[in-house]
């Protein structure tokens, strides 16, 4: 019986045709911006953003991942644009079985099916760069096979060109933040996500970092069934985090406390963060019918920081805690902010006090009272944007892109869970006895064991 027609075979050429239309759309908006500036007219950003989002919405794939990322960075794009982009779904239509077979054959050879006891035809999950199939190994283990979509390297490069167009467009709108460093960081991290061998190494790093933490599970990589475009792991059974929103306070607090440790411990002790704290990247495993801990599922977006950056985070915290302005300024300079005027420092402190706020008071509290997960950080971002607008563009060091994004994402998780914890106590436990040299030593050790370069080469 002949195989069904492969409907995906022309997907990449169709994608490029859509890119051409998006480029035309952006070009039209750019022309409007230029004309408005020349003749002193007001731009209808809301209308332009809606037109652009409509065009982008058909692309799916990596650009949607980038678009959703941009929606979480204050003033990376005008607020009307981020509102529209936040509505877009970072998911691609799944590959059909005929295409999956060809992709698997390309990764594991013509007899690839014989290497599994069973392999699910339908994807268990679909994402921006690939899809996950549930399989069974010959030893009975349940496996998760993450298979990258075809032509993703070319698609990512095309997407990043669109990103540069977006940023170029924004720079014509008198932005409060110079986006050049942001573009550099996003491009580097998205390109890294294409390399599943690198993601496997990230998993090895997290296995070492969290090996003594029973409440956090990291998948096992099956090396003989993995390549740079196929990542096969042990399947981690769990339920979505939001399934536990209506559980008792103790259960919700336990999950939030575990999430706090999963994020802050790798950062404060090893200079490593999980840069994509998205609800879909965690599930909850249970014991005796109660939530026991979390599964960490995705390691494509891992950021490794120089120890000096981590030291700056601790310095800024202690400076804010002790109202020590000299220490606060030293922290900003440690991060690479330049030519800091008093007015700029005051604006940066608005954002810093928002991010650090829950960590500065020694009491049980929510991460933010009376704020929804969707609105977390929006008000403060608007204040920062408005203040910087009057002071001129500020160049933000590229390391901040995923640090800020992750902090906002983590806060959103705490709000979803309605957690009430002593964040001051939790944070101070993580930075007790902090020593930047020890962080560097630990980082070098875990990265070396996993076959990765140090933070100095991460950017």
From TrEMBL:
<dbReference type="InterPro" id="IPR011009">
    <property type="entry name" value="Kinase-like_dom_sf"/>
</dbReference>
<keyword id="KW-0418">Kinase</keyword>
<keyword id="KW-0067">ATP-binding</keyword>
<dbReference type="InterPro" id="IPR034646">
    <property type="entry name" value="ADCK3_dom"/>
</dbReference>
<keyword id="KW-0808">Transferase</keyword>
<dbReference type="GO" id="GO:0016301">
    <property type="term" value="F:kinase activity"/>
</dbReference>
<keyword id="KW-0547">Nucleotide-binding</keyword>
<protein>
    <submittedName>
        <fullName>AarF/ABC1/UbiB kinase family protein</fullName>
    </submittedName>
</protein>
<dbReference type="InterPro" id="IPR051409">
    <property type="entry name" value="Atypical_kinase_ADCK"/>
</dbReference>
<dbReference type="Pfam" id="PF03109">
    <property type="entry name" value="ABC1"/>
</dbReference>
<dbReference type="InterPro" id="IPR004147">
    <property type="entry name" value="ABC1_dom"/>
</dbReference>
<comment type="similarity">
    <text>Belongs to the protein kinase superfamily. ADCK protein kinase family.</text>
</comment>
<feature type="domain" description="ABC1 atypical kinase-like">
    <location>
        <begin position="87"/>
        <end position="330"/>
    </location>
</feature>
